[in-house]
Amino acid sequence: MVRIFEDDDIIHVEGKIDPLADIEVINLELILADLSTVSKRLQNLGKEIKAGKKDAVIESKILERVKNALESGKLASTVSADEFEAPFLRQIHLLTSKPFMYVLNKKSGGKNLDEPRRDLGQDQGETLDERWTKLLGFLKTSGAKWVIVDAGIEQELKDLEDKDKAELREGLGGNDDGINNLIKAGYELLSLMTYFTTGEDETRAWTIHTGWTAPMAGTAIHGDFKDKFIKAEVINWQDLLDAGSYAAARLHGLVRTEGKEYVVKDGDVIEFKI
Fold first, then answer.
1. Pairing relation of β-strands 203-209 and 101-105?
2. How many CB atoms within 10 Å of residue 121?
């Protein structure tokens, strides 16, 4: 999380607001930690390589490439690995090989870098802060996910009911604190999605990996669902709400029957037949 607002009452450790510089500092710390991990692992591989172990040779080659990248200030994720090398890279759990998401923290009612300004020394018109422009350039080049949130508003609202949250959020001058976008981006980053089951007593959401078929999705409920799966009755959550009930949805042909090859979609409401 990096700060993108100015506030004289909230001190920044560097004495200035520069989100790209903050990111570079954080990434450098992660790179140095990974460099230490890789260096130690390469030292331990020495004896295995001398003994002629094939796996040690494969692992050392990919780690040497990663080490060179890290020493150049690049993330481990920038190094490509083939099907034989990838398992060795995964098993040492490098920090910079993981997917990144940058959370840009703004402040409602404050001077935010992402908002057009008239106080940047320009003769006329509004302009974007140069720090914001540079940050966007970096985010686009890196391909990392990013979202804007208002952590201050979230802190104020965390213990309130939904109705009270809406009223207080409006009073604080923020239409959206960005938390929903953060959750969605997190799911996308991890290739996760949600489907629902519903009945008279409760409606539940189940988290699964994107691309799972219906029998695999059923294992989120119980492991036996995969082997005992016969079929699934499926409807999109919005279609079900619009219909008002399962009976009305069936009457209008909105509930469909799917087999073992069906790939579950985000927001599906499913009744499994086993």
1. unpaired
2. 7
Nearest to 198 by CA among 250, 238, 237, 247: 237
Q: CATH number of the domain at 245, please.
A: 3.10.20.30
Residue range of the domain that includes 33? 19-97
Task: Based on the fold, state whether residues 174 and 202 are members of the same structural domain.
Answer: no
Query: What's the CA gap between 251 and 231, in Å, rounded?
Result: 20
Continuous segment of H or E residues that includes residue 138: helix 130-142
12 belongs to a structural domain: no
Instruction: Give me the DSSP letters along 18-45.
Output: -HHHHHHHHHHHHHHHHHHHHHHHHHHH
76: number of Cβ within 10 Å: 25
Q: Compute mean pLDDT per 10 residues along the chain, 274 residues long, and list them.
A: 86 85 95 97 90 91 96 95 93 94 87 76 68 93 89 69 62 64 92 92 94 96 93 96 93 95 96 93
